[in-house]
Amino acid sequence: MSRERLIETFNTHRMSAEVVQAVATARELELAEAMQAVRRAAEQPRQTAQHLIVYGERGSGKSFLMRLIEIEIERLVQKENWLIVSALLPEEQYNIRSAPQLIQAIAAKVRGEVWSFAMDFRPLAEAWEAAITELEAALDQRFGPGLGRVVAMVENFDTLTRNLFGSGVAARKKTASARAIEQNAAEQLLRKLMNRKDSRLMLIASATGTVDQDYERPLFQAFKTIDLRIWTSDDCIAYFNHRRALERQATLSPQEEARARAIAEFIGGNPRLAQLLGEVLATPDARSIAATLDALSDHLADYYRHRLDDLPPQSAALLDALIRKGEPCTQTELAARVNASSQAQIADAFSYLLSSRLLAAGSDKTGAGKLYRLRDRLFVHFYRRRYGEPEQALGLAPIAELLESFFAQREREEQVRRHLEAGEWADARLYALNSPLMCLPSDGFCGYRDGTATGTPGELFRLVGCSPDAAIDAQTELKLHSELSIKRWRDAANCADTGLRRTAALLLEAISLSRCQMDDQAEKVLEEALGRAEMDGDQDSRILVLHNMAVFTCHRRKDPSKVLELSAQIGTLAGKTRNDVVRVIALCSKAWHLSTVEIGHYPEAVDVYDEAAELASKVGSPHLQARALRGKAYSLNQLKRYDEAALLAKQSLDLATAAGMIHNQIEALIYLYSALSKLDQHELALESAQTAYELAVKIRDVDRQVAALTMIGFARSNLGQHELTLESAQTAYELAVKIGDVDRQAVALDLKGWKLAKLGRIDEASDVFDMAFDAAKSGSLPQGLIFILKNQANSLRWKKSERTLILARDILTQTSDVISKDALWTARRIFFEAATRAHAPDVVEMFEICLAEVTTEENTHPLADMLAKVLAAVTYNDLWDELAACLSRHPQTPIFSRTWRPFSEIGRVWSAQVKANGRAQTYAAIARQLPAIVQLIEWLPLEIDLESLEDKTLSQLHSSELINGLLNHCDDAGFLQDIAELLKEGFGKKAEAEIQRLQAFAEVHAASDKEAVLQRLDPNLAHAIRRIWGFPEPDDLLMRKGRRKGR
């Protein structure tokens, strides 16, 4: 912003009407209120005008509003021919020394002249009458005799009235001076003029302090008040956009809008300061902002001194105590700072600060009261620089508040990185007020979990050229003071004599940044390193960077698909390396890629890991050798060669133990646990997991503690130690919450829910499964949702089917595009199963989605297997009409021709409903559903091999399925009889034999002597009933009777 624009900010009278209107912001209400009074004065010239006073602190836009009113009056004069003239006096009136001169200045404005001061020795009354006559003459000359009105706009009216009319106190004294008496008389003359019905003057004044609130003074309540409201952040954004449009620039970007909000907060909503600070919106550098603010505070020195001069002495003392001794604070604390015995002693002075809108209040989280701070932070900046402690004015400290909210997280990280690379530690820390620089928990140097152990030089230290002793020192610094390492490794990269050394140094800088929780900046450095490696054609460097990118992406970004992609790239480059250490890293990455679930080339992975382990042994890297052995153990585990996997895991453990690599020991124990669990050696598996946990605690590696505790929980579960399992799962969950690992939270909660269900604590288990599901949803492993859903449904034995439905529906509607096909069909199966026990109005909708995917006989298998559940769910939810409509939209579906016994579950649902809802309600539901069921059976294709149906028709087969379901689950004889009659009406003679069978079952149920009824039935039918209900065969009865008789 140029100096001219700055000056313009302080003299809006010089701005053109076009510019004023273009940048006018958030003054619509105030302008409308003022113009309403002006319109009344114009349209009712013989009525007393409504005089207005505009209140606002310095810089709130009083002058700007006056200019807006002047422009609007001129517009309406042209448009509506008002007999009105505006007279906007200069902002400062040092040459007006008496009340008559005020009227003369207004008259000069009406004539379009500039008024100049002249000595006037006439008595007040005579001078006043002459001034009024001059004003009347000017209006007569402009509009005609007796016509027209002037709207006089006078700024800084509080200062002017103080100069013209005195304090008022002096005039009330018995010994008042002649000057005081004359000033009071002048004030009375002005009030009389304002109140006259034939007065042709309307006065609009502006002031910082009050002018008409003293009831003993003539001007008491002479004005209607207009208070200028403080700008909100949205107002600031609107202003900046108006200004940019005027200057033909694009509107604010989202990033600039965020900065504008920070500025609005910093300036306390003061429009003048918003104008002045507009230029820093696009500033990328904190030092430039600090320089701008310093320049502005110098430029505004007179303005802020005026604000301080306006304060009563006690209010000024409170302000000083608040700024010097720290904000925010309560009123009680502020009273103590100035040695007041209570709030009451500072009440008036404090109220003045509030009424002057100098203070902003916020809630105290402790509930002790309100916390107060200065609203205008630039004022605080000025005060600290001019009157504060010297150290408060050094570096970026004076603008720390603005920096915290002005820059987005990524930008703050960029600023921090810039300062850290320059060794400016104090300034760097200013950007982290709410998220301070801190090192992440890790046993090694790597914040994103590289496997290097404490005290052992890692591959990067080796490649960067550190000696073993220097590497240990550097690693210690990186672990404990990561912010210091940023400069070290940036300098090392700039001075590196080879491409590989430069790459290793950049990677160490990235690790340092990540440990300082600046992952965006770490990623930028990784990308920089990769770009340089590719530009140089350095394949070793490229592999090294890709490997670090994969580790970073895995542990910091939680993006498995990206890790898979990066490891695949490394695999293609493994044969192009020149450095053996890099080659081992490449081989391990290639083998890992081959052994992932997505690829599943486990035999090939075993071979590559063999090569990596052999080469790692040759180059003397026990860390990489142990890693290769662990990877081979994992691949063997996937091949179900558990004995070999356990042996390799032990070899890796021995190697890590001998080299003192604690992290590697933990990883080896994890793989050993897995193999031992598969071998059902649960006590040894538990021992491995417990040892891993103890080591993780020793090195304060919370991530591995969570993993080990989860394994301990599973091992204890396998050993039947239920309460201990719950304890392990809960501790694992709490630690996972501590480190923000939602994937591990989900696993721990899933285990806890499973065990609670096994203990019969169903309600608790259901709640825990819900928590596990929510955690998995926000994690990086969507497949975990399926495991939790299956465990919830199976362990709770469908006792919480409503919750199961919600979880399954969540997967099907929100994550169907990120889970595997098998997982998707599993979720659908569970959904339909749950819908046979709980309300699900979207069953048919879900079924139709499935139908769209089974367009050929080859891909009907998943849906065919669950079709019986679908029809049962349709029955439970009474959606047969909707299903019929759905099938009519898909007449060629092959699904039913591939399904055996699709109606077998319907009878179970009816049986459950009669127990839950009673006979009448269930009977009515079946009566509604039966026509659609019969119609569907008639519609079904006849591709099923009828030769295997023992002379039954397809209709008989399906009606038999319905009846079997009833017979297997229902023991209500009356209900069975009623349903038999209903089925007879629906199926007619086609199912006569099946219906007779149902009636026979009902008869047996109802009989007190069931054996007598069974003996009268067809032998085959009687045999079937005995088998279903567990009744003894007649021969068994005879034998039992014989034994009793023999006794």
The helix-and-strand class reads mainly alpha
Computed over alpha carbons, the radius of gyration is 44 Å
Q: Number of DSSP helices?
A: 53
How far apart the termini lie comes to 117 Å
**Biggest sheet overview:** 5 strands, parallel
Characterize the structure shown.
The protein has 1047 residues and is mainly alpha-helical. Among the domains are: 201 residues, P-loop containing nucleotide triphosphate hydrolases (Rossmann fold), CATH 3.40.50.300; 124 residues, Arc Repressor Mutant, subunit A. The protein has 53 helices and 7 strands. The strands form 2 sheets. A 5-stranded parallel beta sheet has the order 2-3-4-1-5, with helices on both faces. A two-stranded antiparallel ribbon has the order 6-7. A hairpin with a 6-residue loop joins strand 6 and strand 7. The longest helix has 21 residues.
What are the defining features of this structure?
1047 residues, mainly alpha, Rossmann fold, Arc Repressor Mutant, subunit A, five-stranded parallel β-sheet, two-stranded antiparallel sheet, 3% strand, disordered C terminus
Helices and strands, with pairings:
Elements: H1 3-10, H2 17-23, H3 28-43, E1 52-55, H4 62-80, E2 84-88, H5 99-111, H6 124-143, E3 149-154, H7 157-165, H8 169-172, H9 178-195, E4 201-207, E5 224-227, H10 233-246, H11 254-267, H12 271-277, H13 286-299, H14 301-310, H15 313-324, H16 331-337, H17 347-355, E6 359-363, E7 370-374, H18 377-387, H19 400-406, H20 409-421, H21 425-429, H22 459-464, H23 468-480, H24 482-495, H25 499-515, H26 519-536, H27 539-557, H28 560-573, H29 580-594, H30 602-619, H31 622-638, H32 642-659, H33 662-678, H34 682-698, H35 702-718, H36 722-739, H37 742-758, H38 762-777, H39 783-795, H40 801-814, H41 821-835, H42 843-851, H43 861-865, H44 867-876, H45 880-889, H46 906-917, H47 919-939, H48 954-969, H49 973-987, H50 992-1006, H51 1010-1016, H52 1019-1029, H53 1034-1046
Parallel strand pairs: 1-4, 1-5, 2-3, 3-4
Antiparallel strand pairs: 6-7
Helix pairs in contact: 3-4, 5-6, 10-11, 11-19, 13-14, 13-18, 15-17, 23-24, 24-25, 25-26, 25-27, 26-27, 27-28, 27-29, 28-29, 29-30, 29-31, 30-31, 31-32, 31-33, 32-33, 33-34, 33-35, 34-35, 35-36, 35-37, 36-37, 37-38, 37-39, 38-39, 39-40, 39-41, 40-41, 41-44, 44-46, 46-47, 46-48, 47-49, 48-50, 49-50, ...
